[in-house]
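Record 1 of the preview.
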Amino acid sequence: MKIFHIIVVVSLIATVLTCDETTNYMKNGECCKKCEPGTKMKDEFQPCDKPKCDPCGDGEYMPNYNSDTKCKIQPNCDGNLNFIIEDPGSKTEVGKCVCKEGYHCSSEDCVTCAKHTECEVGEGVQRPGTKDRDTECESCLNESFSNITSAVEKCLKWTECTGDSVEIKAGTPTSDRVCGEYDYEPPARMKEYSFANPVFFFRKLVAT
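->
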């Protein structure tokens, strides 16, 4: 009797060792065949050596050899949560949902998508938002400004006054520098002099 038990145990061990877990599975001490990717087992009562397998339905997939009676459900790219379909997937591959343009994952699990943060007036975009992360803003420094709220615009450099133009109004983090022509206004007493009569003009200067 002991010899019989030993033979049975050895036989079971040999079966387990030779049963490829990728394409087969153990059931009641037998090495049974799995269904191929993209299919599922019709029910749990299928014969071990030739199980009947049904294809996955619409919106379903199965990536591996399996003994399951249900396929996996493709993810629902819910537009109400600001998702779009990046990859519809197939009977053997899972599809992929991503946040639509201007939105990013609101958590590590990406259950919903949130709108990118808009940088305030006086700030610019340091790093634009992506499908996975929010916008990063920075203060406008070093002669730069921003007079709008935006999720895409960087700080702009102040206008350079060139040629005959001069700075009329200094720039700030929220406004640009204003340039214009130099407008000289002579003193009031100088306006009394007649530039049309140089002699009179000279006498007036001496008299003063």
